[in-house]
Amino acid sequence: MLTLNEICAVLGCSKPAASLLKNGKYDRNGDLVKRYQALMEAMDKGRETPLDQICIECPRQNCEGCRVAELRG
Question: Is the pTM for the entire model greater than 0.85?
Answer without folding.
Answer: no
